[in-house]
Amino acid sequence: MMSKFFALIPAAGSGSRMGNKLPKQYLSLAGKPLIYHSVRTLCHSSEITGVFVVLAPGDNEWLKYDWSEFYSKLVVFDCGGATRAMSILNGLKVASESSSIGDGDWVLVHDAARPCLSESLLNKLLNELADDEVGGLLAVPLADTLKRGGTDNRVEKTESRKDLWQAQTPQMFRFRLLVDALYRPGSITMTDDASAVEALGLHPKLVLSDVCNLKITYPQDLILAELILRAQQEESYGE
Ligand code: C5P
């Protein structure tokens, strides 16, 4: 039987680095909450069967928006946990109880805070990994020189950037592998899913991405993301 593709968006974080009371996923970007853009790209993919969003229990922002255009694929759970990994693990558990997801199906975990994922990058990830033994992630080779800071922000050392990549999302693994990897106690504080899979001794594949798939972390990232979204829209209208 052919494996299906599902997407899961953990959206239970508070986004404290943005310095805003409103959780990051609801900050406004191009007239919509940040998370809308990820939901839209994933729901619009004809390859993806279902999209799960994991909210913090008691989230009272989600229902302020109209999500009805995505109802054929979108399922929302309010089972977010204390860390990103716990939110994902909780979401996967509920998904397995409430949907047809099977052990061999693929799960694409995508951060709510990465609104500029393009259809072409998503397709590239799906195509490059669909037959992979382990799975993998979108990533970009590090472009800047790396400094290790010491006392008083003085440079202690310049690190080699050879073979270093910046991990992005989606990160794509089979359901059973992802659950087993995240279930291990050490995984709970890991900041991405690939790390948990690596801890099992496996080697996820790095799929070449680009810097447009940026993560919103600081307020100025929103300005950049808006420009990228606009350029992507113009590109798709021009086709
Ligand atoms: O804070 P950071 O940008 O690393 O969060 C990455 C993703 O993990 C975001 O989509 C955020 O909402 C989610 N998250 C979560 N549960 C947490 C912490 C973060 O779903 N407890």
Overview of this structure, please?
By secondary structure, the chain is α/β, with parallel strands linked by helices. It has a single domain (5-135, 167-238), classed as Spore Coat Polysaccharide Biosynthesis Protein SpsA, Chain A (Alpha-Beta Complex). Helix content is 30%, strand content 23%. It contains 6 helices and 11 strands. The chain has helices spanning 34-44, 84-98, 119-129, 175-183, 193-198, 219-238, and strands spanning 5-11, 28-29, 32-33, 48-55, 74-77, 106-109, 136-141, 146-149, 155-159, 165-174, 205-208. It has a 7-stranded mixed sheet with strand order 5-4-1-6-10-7-11, sandwiched between helices. A two-stranded antiparallel sheet has the order 2-3. Helix 2 packs across helix 4. The protein is globular, with a radius of gyration of 18 Å. The protein starts with a strand and ends with a helix. Bound molecules: cytidine-5'-monophosphate (C5P). The site of cytidine-5'-monophosphate (C5P) has 17 residues, from strand 1 and helix 2.
Mean pLDDT: 94
- Tell me about the largest β-sheet: 7 strands, mixed
The CATH topology is: Spore Coat Polysaccharide Biosynthesis Protein SpsA, Chain A
* Structure class: alpha/beta
In the predicted model, the low-confidence regions spanning at least 5 consecutive residues are none
Structural key phrases:
single chain, 239 residues, alpha/beta, Spore Coat Polysaccharide Biosynthesis Protein SpsA, Chain A, two-stranded antiparallel ribbon, 23% strand, globular, binds cytidine-5'-monophosphate
